[in-house]
Design goal:
The chain is mainly α. The chain folds into 2 domains: about 5-145, Globin-like; about 225-410, Helix Hairpins, CATH 1.10.287.950. It is about 90% helix and about 0% strand. It is built from 11 helices and 2 strands, in the order αβααααααβαααα. It has helices spanning about 1-10, 20-30, 35-45, 45-50, 50-65, 65-75, 80-95, 100-115, 120-140, 145-305, 310-424, and strands at about 15, 95-100. Helix 5 crosses helix 7. The protein is rod-shaped and about 225 Å long. Keywords: Transducer.
């Protein structure tokens, strides 16, 4: 029978497993792919070769139905070229030889798949279709069902081993590329870290230097603010003292004002007294004149009386002298009164001027006192603001000192990061 022809070739077929890798041997052992089965696979190589075009056409018919896979083929090769490559690959798969060259060819297939971007899912799906096509050919050409099933199992094991090798190589290539990308990214990251660390260190050092200068300037400003605050306190104290002194001065001006009023009234009373004395003096002048006239008449009468009038004449003479002395005294007093009135008028004028000046001084003193009150209030507000600024400057200086410490920590951290990047 026809099937015997394929099986008869098994005994004459050459088979070899020339692999020392313990992992590969374990894989073969796991799927029970023995030397006898490899020899059986070699015996149907001619069957595979006879239907190779049918197998390859069915394989690529399935693949080209997927637009993504079709585009991968068009972007990287041609359908005819890939068909010929697959023909050789399938025929070699059933050569009965599993050795280093066999494994290397599968590894190259995996590398090509990775390079062109063929994902494992499409590879496994395509191999499933390939397996179905091979099994159909076996069932069509080998009538003995037991032998057909046996050969079908061998084909499944061969394809499974093929997939193991290719997928493992694909994964290794994937890991290698990822490791390569990782190393590349790592180197780029290290370079960026070095650059950033250098920039950070430079910026942090510049910032630290600037912060030191700023702290120094801030301390100077703080000292100036404290000095200004002290000056403001002293100024406020002096202004308060000035206000007190001005109040005292205003009190004195008020006393002077009251006294000038009293003096003005006293001088007015003096003027009135002088006027009254003048009236009395006029009366005395009139009396002196009448007395003088009376003395003159008495002298005349005494002269007429001759001897009997001598004594009366003496009296009349004395009265006349007294009258003349009185007249002279009254005239002198009158001249004094006139002079006193002149002086009094001058004193009244001076007192009025003093009174006006005192009134003006009082008004100015009141205005000055009000201004001093505003100054004291302004100084109090200003001192409060200065004290707030002083407190703010203390906080600012403290904050800047903390920033300076933090900047130093940034420098240390940047240097540590740079060292860590160099070690990594």
């Amino acid at each position: 029978m026809e099937h015997s022809r394929w099986l008869d070739q098994q005994d004459r077929a050459k088979a070899k497993i020339d692999v020392t890798d313990p992992t590969i041997l374990k894989q073969l052992e796991m799927i029970d792919l023995t030397i006898e089965e490899i020899r059986l696979a070699s015996s149907i190589q001619k069957l595979i070769q006879a239907h190779i075009r049918e197998i390859v056409s069915a394989f690529y018919q399935t693949i080209t139905n997927v637009e993504e896979l079709k585009q991968i083929i068009l972007d990287n090769s041609t359908l005819e070229r890939l068909q010929k490559t697959l023909e050789r690959h399938l025929i070699e798969m059933f050569s009965g030889q599993i050795d280093g060259e066999f494994l290397q060819k599968r590894i190259r297939v995996a590398e090509v798949h990775y390079r062109i971007g063929l994902e494992p899912k499409w590879y496994m799906g395509a191999f499933q279709n390939l397996q179905s096509t091979l099994l159909d050919i076996v069932h069509e050409n080998i009538g003995n069902r037991v032998e057909s099933v046996r050969i079908g199992k061998v084909i499944s094991k061969i394809l499974n081993f093929e997939q193991q090798i290719v997928l493992e190589a694909y994964e290794k290539e994937n890991l290698r590329q990822r490791q390569k990308q990782y190393e590349q990214v790592k180197e780029e990251l290290k370079a960026k870290i070095f650059t950033v660390c250098e920039q950070m260190t430079s910026i942090a050092e510049q910032t630290s230097a600037s912060m030191q200068e700023l702290i120094s300037s801030s301390n100077e400003v703080n000292r100036s603010v404290r000095s200004g605050a002290q000056t403001s306190r002293e100024t406020q104290h002096l202004a308060s003292q000035g206000k007190v002194k001005l109040g005292e001065l205003e009190g004195r001006i008020e006393a002077i004002f009251n006294r000038t009023n009293t003096m003005e009234k006293s001088v007015e009373l003096l003027n009135q007294s002088v006027r009254e004395i003048g009236t009395v003096i006029k009366i005395v002048q009139d009396i002196a004149g009448q007395t003088n006239l009376l003395a003159l008449n008495s002298a005349i009468e005494a002269a007429r009386a001759q001897e009997h009038g001598k004594g009366f004449a003496v009296v009349a003479q004395e009265v006349r002298k007294l009258s003349e002395q009185t007249k002279l005294s009254v005239e002198q007093i009158n001249s004094y009164i006139v002079q006193t009135r002149t002086y009094t008028e001058e004193v009244v004028g001076a007192i009025q001027e003093v009174h006006q000046l005192v009134q003006a001084s009082k008004a100015e003193s009141e205005a000055t006192e009000e201004s001093f009150a505003h100054i004291v209030q302004s100084m109090a507000r200003s001192l409060g603001e200065v004290e707030n600024v002083e407190a703010g400057m203390r906080v600012l200086v403290q904050s800047m000192e903390e920033i300076g410490v933090a900047t130093q920590q940034v420098v240390i951290s940047a240097e540590t990061l740079q060292e860590a990047a160099g070690i990594a």
